[in-house]
Amino acid sequence: MTTISSRDRTIALVAVAATIASGIAISVHANPVLLFVITAVALAMLASMVGSATEQLGGKLGPGATGVLQSALGNLPELFICIFALRQGLVTVVQSALIGSILANSLLVLGLAFLAGGLKNGAQKFGKQQPRMIASLMLLAVSGLMIPTLAHTLHTAAGRHPDTLSIAAAIVLLIVFLVSLPVSIKGGPLTPADCEPCAEETPDAWPMWLSIVTLLAAGVGAAFVSDWFVEALKPAIRILHLSEAFTGLVLVAIAGNAVENVVGIQLAIKNRMDFAVSVILNSSLQVSLGLIPVLVLLSFFLGGAHLTLVLTPLLIAVLALAAIVTTVVVYDGESIWLEGAALIGLYVIIAAAFWWG
């Protein structure tokens, strides 16, 4: 007999209810702000469902395969949001949302993990090698993402070809990501370390068929809800007097990506910092090496606006700052609650800087 935890059952019920409510709201042309809120909740819950099903499926396939699955499926809601937003010409929202995903993981979620874990357990320690490896790759990935913007800003010859340069950078980053897959599948330094206590996180194992059905259902639901979410985006931005940059950087990024990483905070509270830090940092790395390059390439084939890596100077600056700060914070293999509070504070200041655009 299959036993589903009360948490997973609650998430599934809320996701189904919010998805149905979103469909009803779009069919009766409900207030755009109401539709925006309902679809955001639905996306967050669907993302959490994808994360739970992936974790359950990974429990049968091993930690390496779990990392690959999380990379491929964990960002499904955000992928759909960005595709539909590009088809409506919301390039600023998409660029801000992608950078916002990295910021949300590297600063907000990591900060909350350090804060919650530190307040409960005091100073916490974690292995240095894996976080250093991920942070180094993140710095390299961010450097690659910055080149098209620098070429454009510095008025170089390459800066006159933003589409071609962005495609070239995306292909290279994607190759690096693909090269890392064999290492990930084998459980190398790019995947969370396996450990016996991990089994305690999922005492109620799902059968294979339930995990697959949940993934398919959540993926289909995310596709529909993302379309409705983007449809409500433009009027909601206008009614709420929000800038496209702030909407993408904060609201879209959190709705599509960050909620699934609550598991990182839960692991920190349980003093399992090796796994917590690895999960959180890997999420940022997967967006940089996987999601962003894929969206850049897809945007040239799906119609609508083209997504390039020529970003605004402030977006590039905060992206570089987040990568550097994260590297410095995790380099010593220790964390305290004050570091978490500082990371959260930095995220709030960055979000405030984009309030006006």
UniProtKB/TrEMBL annotation:
Membrane topology: Multi-pass membrane protein
Ranges that cross the membrane: 33-53, 92-116, 137-158, 164-185, 206-225, 245-263, 275-301, 307-329, 336-356
MF annotations from Gene Ontology: calcium:proton antiporter activity
One Pfam family here: Na_Ca_ex
Primary location class: membrane
Example GO BP: intracellular calcium ion homeostasis
Family statement drawn from the similarity comment of this UniProt entry: Belongs to the Ca(2+):cation antiporter (CaCA) (TC 2.A.19) family.
PANTHER family the record matches: VACUOLAR CALCIUM ION TRANSPORTER
Function: Ca(+)/H(+) antiporter that extrudes calcium in exchange for external protons.
Protein name: Ca(2+)/H(+) antiporter
Lineage: Bacteria, Bacillati, Armatimonadota, Armatimonadia, Capsulimonadales
